[in-house]
């Protein structure tokens, strides 16, 4: 069972409440990669695949068919990534045990061109989600998000489009009902 936690921090997940109808954050699961009271918060939306492949969007990348995800509304022209490669990608920052953020892009491109990386080892995102200092805490007070622990398997899930509802169901009966909440309650 997934445990709920009220305090956001690096390596935790944000799960949006069902009535949040924002294009980016409605029914989303966000991995927090950075969170500090003075600098704010950076996260990546895990469950919004873009139905394009990485090499269709980033032409300099080696020919590949890695999936691409919408990371958030901030800097949609930039590429971000998380991976399980650790020291194979110098400069990476460990978020949770076995999961890393960023690192030297040229090294990552080299590993991909040599076919030394599989789809299960890296996730690519266009843009990121960002909050100014204390903004996320205000949204938490407004009950827009639930914070929970992150597991490596969650980030690299095979069916990310089902992640939001699956996470809620794992959190127990109080949250499982959210998974069946209609996208637009007015149309119900």
Task: Please describe the structure with a list of short key phrases separated by commas or semicolons.
21% helix, alpha+beta, 11 strands, VC0467-like, 188 residues, single chain, 11-stranded mixed sheet, 6 helices
Assign the CATH topology: VC0467-like
Mean pLDDT: 89
The helix-strand sequence is: EEEEEHEEEEHEHEHHH
- The portion of residues forming beta strands comes to 25-35%
Low-confidence runs of at least 5 consecutive residues: none
Largest sheet: 11 strands, mixed
- Mass-distribution shape: globular
Instruction: Give the C-level CATH assignment.
Output: Alpha Beta
**How many H/I helices?**
6
The portion of residues assigned to helices is: 10-25%
The tally of strands reads 11
Give the name of the CATH superfamily: VC0467-like
Whole-number count of domains: 1
Task: Measure the end-to-end span.
Answer: 30 Å
Structural class, please? alpha+beta
Question: Which CATH architecture is right?
Answer: 3-Layer(aba) Sandwich
């Amino acid at each position: 069972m997934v445990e709920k936690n009220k305090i956001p921090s690096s390596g935790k997940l944000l799960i949006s409440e069902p009535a949040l109808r924002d294009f980016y954050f409605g029914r989303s699961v966000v991995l927090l990669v950075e969170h500090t009271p003075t600098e704010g918060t950076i996260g990546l939306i895990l469950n919004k695949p873009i139905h394009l492949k990485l090499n269709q969007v980033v032409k300099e990348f080696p020919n590949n068919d890695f999936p691409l995800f919408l990371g958030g509304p901030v800097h949609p022209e930039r590429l971000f990534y998380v991976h399980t490669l650790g020291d194979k990608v110098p400069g990476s920052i460990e978020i949770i045990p076995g999961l890393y953020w960023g690192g030297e892009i040229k090294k990552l491109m080299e590993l991909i061109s040599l076919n030394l990386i599989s789809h299960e080892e890296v996730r690519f995102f266009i843009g990121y989600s960002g909050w100014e200092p204390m903004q996320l805490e205000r949204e938490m007070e407004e009950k827009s998000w639930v914070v929970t622990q992150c597991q490596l398997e969650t980030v690299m899930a095979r069916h990310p489009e089902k992640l939001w509802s699956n996470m809620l169901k794992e959190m127990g009966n109080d949250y499982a009902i959210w998974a069946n909440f209609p996208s637009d309650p007015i149309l119900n």
